[in-house]
Amino acid sequence: MKHPEIEKRIKELMSEMTLEEKVGQLHQAGGSLVGAFDLTLEEILTMVADGRMTEEEGHNMLSEARRDWHEDDLRAGRIGSYIGVLSAEEMNRLQHIAVEETRLGIPLINGVDVIHGFRTITPIPLAESCAWDMELWQRTARMSAEEATAAGVHMTFSPMVDVSKDPRWGRIAESAGEDAMLNGLYGEAKVRGYQSDDLTRHDAMAACVKHFAAYGAAEGGRDYNRVDMSPQRFEEEYLPSYERAVKAGARAVMPAFNDLSGVPCSVNKKLLTDILRKRWGFDGMTISDANAIAECINHGIAADRRDAARQALNAGMNMDMTSGCFLDHVKELVEAGEVSMDTLDEAVSNILRLKFELGLFDDPYRSNAEEEKAAMLKPEYRALAREAAQKSMVLLKNSGLLPLKEGVRIGLAGAMASNGDEMCGTWAGAVQPGDCKSIRDGMDEERIGYAMITEEPLPDCDVFVCAIGERKAESGEAASRASLELTEADIALLKRLKESGKPVVTVVFAGRPLCLGPAVEYADAVLMAWHPGTEAGPAILDLLFGRVNPSAKLTASFPAATGQCPTLYYDHIRTGRPAGKFKYTSKYLDAPVEPLFPFGFGLSYTSYRYSEISATQTGNGIHAEITVQNTGDRAGDEIVQCYFRDPAAQRVRPVRKLAAFEKVTLQPGEIKRVAFDIPETALGYYDQDMNFVIDDGLIEIHIGGNVRDTLLADVDYRNA
Ligand code: BGC
Questions:
Q1: Could you tell me whether strands 252-255 and 285-286 are parallel, antiparallel, or unpaired per DSSP bridges?
Q2: β-strands 109-112, 81-83: how paired?
Q3: Terminus of the chain with fewer CB atoms < 10 Å: N or C?
Q4: What pLDDT does residue 33 have?
């Protein structure tokens, strides 16, 4: 929301600015690497990823390298923002140049990818979404902001709220999974946590909602690829999560790399102006994705960098992340009348507004080296990371083996058992080697005895704990996969352990849903640990030994075979021939059509019974209730899910759609009545002519502990 005092100051400042100074504000610069080696950053990262260099070697090389922050450009007023300054001292040094050595003293804004923690790492977003817990999401975001701002960060390129229905896409790791509402709620909680209720606080950072829009629908699950979909689907399934996060007050938005039905998001006026500003009333800043403006040439819609700059600025892009197209060409575009001064002024004022809102003009130096040091990895942060990890890991199978008894003799196996650095997952740039704890570290810390399994023969033990799955570099950006199967080495290990006759617990690490058929076949218990962050090992042990009862539920379906992608997701559209025994139905010859584990699925050490479902129409929606009883002998948190289905609509609708959920704590034997109010708008959709409609007639309400196991109540709905 605009503040009159800030608007006045923006106006005054802009009246002083030259055309060149305005253009300078639009440019976000990165630091070029300078060091005593001949490799580029990309080459180092590739060598680490393919094993030619160890992680530690790569890390050392990068930390030894200096960054060239192009200070001459900064002094000349040609830089408005940096990406990736990772220390308070460095940020203060650069800020001093901006404030004291440029003509107008306009402060810099420093944007960094703080995705799931800065130094203390919480589970990857896909994992944390499995907690279905807004309060937790907000608290972990607050912690991220406290650490990151102490290191000189003013804005995070988060939350990502791209609905991700295809696990081949590596960036599903950064999302809240395949449901629109969950992504929206996740984004809202993160925005609140990062920004707090007062952006001028030293520990508040601006949130940048990304990637606007529908990046998660990249064709084939391949990164940076096209997105093409009906306007109805876009409005119903993809747009709502961005809207929710923007309306929660996010002060920045990042358009996506992809094209949307033929128009790259970076130059998409419909998105950046019509929807974002006019429809939603957004008055914050837009910032391109890295180099994305220049990439409009590769998309084949811009003749050259000048043309790309013209299209992006005219569409509603404000800041150019690192491509330099704005810096190089906006002056001449304005002089040639191809971009109006009003358009430029609008972009500049959106950028200055954020700087004023953050309080950077009055208070540009927000931290120092000492404060930074004291802010990192505090014991209470480690405790929160552990809690978040406990609440994010999904128990997928348990044939009675878990929880383990204290004193049990463990054989610890698998490539992921002892490498703490692999636990943080994608996007954890400020983490130092040794920060994160593996299962083995956790056992050492607690003095739990174990034998490491490396080669034959297998040692004498009571149970095997086998840690398998993806390394951190195998998910995230530019890490799409054509196969979601476990590796041959992992499968062979599981088989060998199974053949010993001893019980096996498999702990799976990954940034995405994988095909876990062999894990289910060869192990007695399977815990999906994802990439759980700093306190991975201790949190896993808390769950394995039953000190904490697992409660997380999947927010993305787990495939039985890779070929089920991209139609795997729970809210798929109905077909005229749903899969059945008859040959000519919608299925595969060589794989099941159902996922191995459905959306919303997750076990616990207790059991729940659902009964007495009811649903009635209220003045403005549907009220539904169900009774849930804890029928086991341990307290637990159950995530109760309420879905609906419209069996006779004007357009084909999903088989099920999540409408509401509630996480309830139940003591052994305890019974609770859980109630949901589904607003009428949640039942609506777009008809063929793009009118938003809500039907009269039957609505089915399905409530249960996952999308497959639900009770049903019917409502004869009359549109209010
Ligand atoms: C990613 C963004 C990220 C940006 C800056 C891009 O490659 O798509 O999500 O914020 O880099 O690091």
A1: parallel
A2: parallel
A3: N
A4: 79
Atom number in ligand 1 closest to CA 84: 12
Amino acid in position 145:
A
Quick check: is 20 in a domain? Answer: no
Please identify, by atom number, the ligand 1 atom nearest to the C-alpha of residue 157: 10
Q: Are residues 496 and 635 in the same domain?
A: no
Select which of 113, 133, 162, 289 is catalytic.
Answer: 289
Task: Show which of 48, 67, 86 is a domain's final residue.
Answer: 67
What is the per-residue pLDDT across 467-483, written as a single tens digit (0 to 9) for each?
999 999 999 999 999 99
Positions of E strands within 553-653? 608-618, 621-630, 636-645
Contact 653, 646 (CB under 8 A): yes
Residue 65, token pair as written in the block: 């390298």
Residue 17 pLDDT grade (very low, low, confident, very high; cuts 50, 70, 90): very high
The atom number, within ligand 1, closest to the CA of 160 reads 9
Tokens of 15: 């009246």
Q: Which of 564, 599, 626 is the last residue of a domain?
A: 564
**Closest residue CA from atom 6 of ligand 1:** 290
Q: Band of the pLDDT at 43, cuts 50, 70, 90?
A: confident
The domain tally of the chain equals 3
Share of the chain above pLDDT 70, in %: 99
Q: Residue 648 falls within a domain, yes or no?
A: yes
Question: By residue range, what is the domain housing residue 534?
Answer: 376-564
Nearest CA to ligand 1 atom 5: 290
Active site residue 289: yes
Rounded distance between C-alpha atoms, residue 326 and residue 321, angstroms: 10
Angle between helices 439-446 and 536-544 (to 10 degrees): 70
Q: Of the residues 113, 169, 253, which should be mutated to test ligand 1's pocket, given the most ligand atoms within 8 Å of the CB?
A: 113
User: DSSP letter string over 499-568?
Assistant: HTTS-EEEEEE-SS--B-HHHHHH-SEEEE--S--TTHHHHHHHHHTTSS------SSPBPSSGGGTTS-
pLDDT tens profile 375-409: 999 999 999 999 999 999 999 999 999 999 999 99
Q: How far is the CA of 223 from the centre of ligand 1 (A)?
A: 12
| CB 466 within 8 Å of CB 415 | no
Beta-strand runs (E) in 366-452 = 394-398, 410-413, 450-452
Residues whose beta carbon lies within 6 Å of some atom of ligand 1:
113, 157, 210, 289-290, 477
Q: Which residues contact 180 (CB under 8 A, 6 or more apart)?
A: 163, 236, 237, 238, 240, 241
Residues 497, 466 contacting (CB under 8 angstroms): yes
Q: Inter-axis angle of helices 180-195 and 239-247, to 10 degrees? A: 20
Identify whether 561 is preceded by a cis peptide bond (ω within 30 of 0).
Answer: no
